[in-house]
Amino acid sequence: MHIAVAGNIGAGKTTLSELLAKHYKWIPHYEDVDENPYLNDFYNDMQRWSFNLQIYFLNSRFRQIIEIRKFKKTVIQDRTIYEDAEIFASNLHSMGLMSTRDFKNYKTLFDHMVSLIKPLDLLIYLRAAVPTLVTQIEKRGREYEKSIRLDYLKQLNDRYENWIRDYNMGKSLIINVDNLDFTTNPEDLSFIIDKIDAQINGLF
To answer: Which of 85, 93, 134, 187 maximizes the CB count within 10 A of its CB?
Structure first.
């Protein structure tokens, strides 16, 4: 199976993917953040680097999907290719930080890529309010994330809610993480695992 964890910046995707991979013996695929050559520049000058960043993410995510196809075991992916286009690139375009010309070019490439891939078996969406996101972002202390604006996080959250409401490409599970601490509280992690078990059992 191909399972993915979706959610805004700071929602806990990487941590949960790691914990679920360990619990289920799944193969994890993480977002290419530390090696991304555009992130730091992007947060300092979004308009200049938005197209470059989104193309990098799109290419990286598509390459991951090609690799995932080779595995015989279940893979859990940190963030989906759909979020790149439906959330981040669309938001940058609406904010005037990506030109219409660049966005149309990007979207055409995305549409071609998506036509070649199989939909997810299960999408796990981590819903988090902006204060939760800010707390998590501050806790992990990434230098390039210090300049992220609250209105930017809020706009992304609004797009995420619209996207998950209309998501119809397969099974989805929404988990509100505002009052959960699955990193340190085993009961909270068990709560999530129970929900995932119920979804997975329905796939067979």
So the answer is: 85
Structure tokens at 146: 């210090």
pTM, full prediction: 0.89
pLDDT tens, 92-127? Answer: 999 999 999 999 999 999 999 999 999 999 999 999
pLDDT in tens, 40-61: 888 889 899 999 999 999 998 9
The catalytic residues are: 78
| Maximum Cα interatomic distance, the chain, rounded to a whole number of Å | 49
- Type of residue numbered 103: F
Cα–Cα distance for residue pair 19/105, rounded to 1 Å: 37
Give 2-201's CATH code, choosing from 3.40.50.2300, 3.40.50.300, 2.40.30.20, 3.30.43.10.
3.40.50.300
Residues 6+ apart with CB under 8 A from 10: 128, 132, 133, 134, 135, 136, 137, 140, 145, 153
3-state helix, strand, coil in the chain (%, to 5): 55, 10, 30
- Decide the pairing of beta strands 2-7 and 75-78: parallel
